[in-house]
Amino acid sequence: MAIETRNKIDSSFNMASMSDLVFLLLIFFMLTSTLVAPNAIKLLLPASNSKTMAKQSLSVYINNKRDFFIGDKPVAPTQLEARLYNKIKKNARATIVLRADKTVPVQDIVTVIDAINQINEEHHTKHIMILATSPRRQ
Fold this sequence. Notes:
Elements: H1 16-35, E1 47-48, E2 58-62, E3 68-70, E4 73-75, H2 80-88, E5 95-100, H3 106-123, E6 128-131, E7 134-135
Parallel strand pairs: 1-7, 2-5, 5-6
Antiparallel strand pairs: 2-3, 3-4
């Protein structure tokens, strides 16, 4: 006596759910990639082998035209100290990342360092400045 099964096992795979999943992932990555804001100011950073990473509180930019920016807002070098203090006064140990174009004179970098040192001296804070670099190509 041969017993036959009523439910036949189908060995084919339905790809409809897989294509839906891939489509949803594609939409997710397209939307999240537009939320990441790249540096608005184009700079050629100096090269370095250093790999220091820190949690940054604020970014200061100096472009190749020697224009200063705090975040994406332009600032005059004479107003740098006051504007920096307004941005970091709530944090006594803020880390300021200086992103200076490699063609910028050292004096402009020293101007930012002096402004941070002056803030630390006047307000008894311990803000740190880090110079951003790009990885050295080998």
